[in-house]
Amino acid sequence: MRFLMLYRPDAPEGTPPTPEDFAAMGAFIDEISKAGVLLAAEGCQPSEKGARVRQRDGKVTVTDGPFTEAKELIGGFALVEVKSTDEAIEWGKRFLKVAGDGESEIRLLHEAPAFEA
Q1: How far apart are CA 38 and CA 78, in angstroms?
Q2: Which entry of 19, 43, 46, 62 is 20 to 30 Å from 30 by CA?
Q3: Rounded mean pLDDT of the chain?
């Protein structure tokens, strides 16, 4: 089962990680990679370097960053492959212990068999 794990930090956007933060996250990435779970992971640049594209009633609008709703900002993501939702949650908890206060939204991705009759 593949899961997308979105991270929303509680720290103000653009707060730089300390050297200790980098070291701890590097060790965690090494551990989750060696466990054969991690497929991809990246941190996001501040929202001022991004844009939102929306469509409503056929009309498309583009809004340049920065975005003011901190609770909606995504600090990074990981794509993992695990055996169960419970295992994904456990990795999410371990990630937050390293990353610090915030939220990790864990979403199961569709697999081809999910669409077969």
Answers
A1: 7
A2: 46
A3: 92
pLDDT score of 112: 75
Number of C-alpha atoms within 13 angstroms, CB side, residue 37?
A: 22
pTM, full prediction:
0.86
Q: State which amino acid sits at residue 79.
A: L
| CATH number belonging to domain 2-115 | 3.30.70.1060
Stretch (H or E) spanning 56: strand 51-56
| Burial annotation 50-63 (CB, 10 A radius, 16+ → b, else e) | eeeeeeeeeeeeee
Domain ranges of the chain: 2-115
SS3 30: helix
How does pLDDT run across 38-74, given as a tens digit for each residue?
999 999 999 999 999 999 999 999 999 998 776 778 9
